[in-house]
Amino acid sequence: MVAPAWAQKKSKKAVSEPAPAAQPAAENKPETPRDSVKIDPMMAHFIRKYSTALAWNDYDVAKDALYDLIVENPGNDSLIYDLAVFYYERQKYASSVLVGQELLSRNPKNLPALEIVASGYENLGIADRALQTYESMYLLTNTTGSLYKMAFLQFDLKRFKEAATSADILLTKPELETTKVVFNDAQNKPKEYTMKVAVLNLRGMIELENGNKPNAKKWFDQALAAAPDFVPAKQNLNKTK
Length: 241
What we know:
Layout: E1 19-20, H1 41-55, H2 59-72, H3 77-89, H4 93-106, H5 111-123, H6 127-141, H7 144-156, H8 160-170, E2 180-184, E3 190-194, H9 195-209, H10 213-226, H11 231-238
Antiparallel strand pairs: 1-2, 2-3
Helix pairs in contact: 1-2, 2-3, 3-4, 3-5, 4-5, 5-6, 6-7, 7-8, 8-9, 9-10, 10-11
């Protein structure tokens, strides 16, 4: 899987949703159209237009130049992906999803497109469609990042049994000890924590929703044992008293 594209919306819950430290795949993209474009005089013109517009922060002109390149090369998936990334980076999530869906109509197993679409849906607050797309990614890759996103989306959708299953699978993965996610600390500043801390807290949240405060407390205690300053677990622990 491409490095996780996890820009997150703020949760309406008392405990904010995770925003993993890894940046979106979109941010790893080059700021010029791909080298695979056949260069002829017209194409060279559009590429220069695109690059110059980006250099001068004229994103409307840059977008127009990218569309020109796509019109001249309609079968070039790389250019279409560049457009999806262009929209994603500028928080035009609806457009990034629509462009990404065009790529998926050509190849449902296009992982970068799946990631753009999943994260786009998530940022739009369309949790059920985001979950479906992350599930497709997980079936293809069996990666921890996809399952992590699934667990929290399942929780948001009140599919607590599924969320618990996903979290329990995650807790068997050794990489949870080293993979970092970002939550705000007591000073409301972003801070990195291990993914395991977030998943332990999630398990406690699920138990709270199921009305089992003693079990919830055990999970929150485990999260705080690993990260004593983890604010979400502290807040949730208070709910068990």
